[in-house]
User: Fold these one by one.
Assistant:
Number 1:
Amino acid sequence: MKELPEKNFIGNNKSYIVSIKKIDALEGNMIEIAGEKLPVGKSYKSKVTELFGLYE
């Protein structure tokens, strides 16, 4: 994660790093990319929701 540009990528849990441009939706604790739903970990939730202009 440290080697990727922060403005283009985001971690959504300990197992995944995703391209921000590829995120299609956020629903609860899941993000959707190309029809696949991936979990958003508790420690990543605030950063992911801020990306969508949402605040907890």
Number 2:
Amino acid sequence: MASRRRLGYRSRTMIPAAPSPPVGTLLREWRRRRRLSQLGLALDAEISARHLSFLETGRARPSRDMVLRLAERLDVPPRDRNAILAAAGFAPAYPERPLAHASMAVARRAIETILAAHEPCPALAVDRHWSLVMANRAVAPLLAGVDESLLGSAPNVLRIALHPRGLAPRIVNFAELRAHLLARLQRQIAISGDDALAALLEELRGYPTPDGAGPHVGADDLAGIAVPLRLRTPAGPLSFISTITVFGTPVDLTLAELALETFFPADDATARALGEMAQGREPLHKSLQRS
């Protein structure tokens, strides 16, 4: 019997997508992440512990209002509230639109206004994974010498800060700042349960320490009120403290997950250097903006 061959045919094995956990499982996971007992959450949500137990085990199906009430009490991030609603068979409560969308024009202008008004001091906006969304013109000079591979279309500011081809070799108090940033990321993971952030944390922990880095704290150590960023630059050593700004009442995922970090001079020499650097500054480098 002659054998036959089918040219151009390749056998494919379809791998089914992993099913999303039931709504009760998600509620139980978030309750445990918040270290709450069933009784504690039930009292806070003003329902019986028995009803909550039925919801978690799938013996009862929650209403949309109940899902939102429990998510509110558990301080579940908006993106994960959408996931719990979907698991319960409901539409998401929070839309997600890019900043370039016409409906986001007001928010986009607000961000641009804050960043521009902060000059000559650096300021930037990052998303939930620390990807750079927008920056003012004072940021670009500080990134001089950072490897181009770290400055793609969506550069990650933590990678830029801690990577040996990033700012790390120029950070005077590298060990001190690294410990602060990793602890900050660890807290964010504990709150959000974000797997991508957990992977980022492991990646950052694996970066080698630059030669000569130590737990240096200058004589003007801000009296212990903040961990500064002390950076060697062509304009001389600069020292910054930073603040974080978030939108107060966002109902869109993009805005809910956006944070604006503004840097302030920690000493007079830095303030003078920033003023001098601002003179004759060119327009903001396009690579530092992402719609």
Number 3:
Amino acid sequence: MTGQSETGASGAARLEVEGLSLSFGGLKALSTVSFAAEPGSITALIGPNGAGKTSMFNCISGFYHPQQGAVRFDGRDVTRMHPPERAALGFARTFQNIALFRGMTVLDNIKLGRHAHMKTNLLQALAYWGPAQREEMALRAEVEERIIDFLEINHIRNMPVAALSYGLQKRVELARALAMRPRILLLDEPVAGMNREETEDMARFILDVKEEWGTTILMVEHDMGMVMDISDHVVVLNFGQVIASGLPHEVQADPHVTEAYLGSGDPAALMARLRGEGPDTGRNREEVA
């Protein structure tokens, strides 16, 4: 899908990560990482705990600034842009730990997602007349008629977030991200902590966002069943480096991926890696986020 869809997306974008390196003092979190998320696709970023996934997400969304390399949005270098600037371009993100305003209603939480695109100035907003009122009513109509119906949360729209189950809170967070009209949607462990039914519902919604909104999706997730079912492309990180990249079934069969998750079974090799010796000397690092 290209152009603007009826749901408000303004066209998928290509995301490129080129030679990204990130260090915290002497701690190397990422080392010359490169990959791309193609327009309108679902790319999964996976790896064992401490592989560098969260650091990568924070670099892409602008919370971290890498020492080397670039993040490109449809060919435009956004590496040094701040998070609000990236949001205005079409970046949206959900978080591993739910980041909603628990005392506010579902509807108000979702509407906050549009803040980066609002054109009303402070005085107009305070007076709440003319352009401010029209913009607010248009936003509410879009949220209610499209996003809330799309994610099947009409029955909780006026409830406070604190009263919702964990699975519904994750769905509300996705709704808030969609209110930003994303061209690139970053999903940080969207089904973590969910039961099987909630996971299946979320997987369906993510696929629908791809198909109906035409949004490029980059997802960090530990549920390998879901990753292999819905992803178009999978990138595997370990010790801050890309060790495999390709179609889900190709990555699943890669022996390097199996070793990263399960180990080689050789105690001597494990001890050498922990000491930073042997062929993996360049991987003597840990993820800090």
Number 4:
Amino acid sequence: MNEFEKLGLKPVILRAITQLGFTEPTEIQQKTIPYILKGKDVIGQSATGSGKTLAFGCGILEQVIPGKDYKH
């Protein structure tokens, strides 16, 4: 089992993460993704290259609804 599955990400995002070769979330990802998926505000500090962008990017992608018009 891919460790990212335990974080509650959608299957399409899990497939993309797996295809990119990631199998185990970093500490910052483990600690932030569950909160981000719940819509909580998160401030995280971690070293460059530790996976912050993936953590926050997953949260953004989880909110996208295919076919929805996001224009305001």
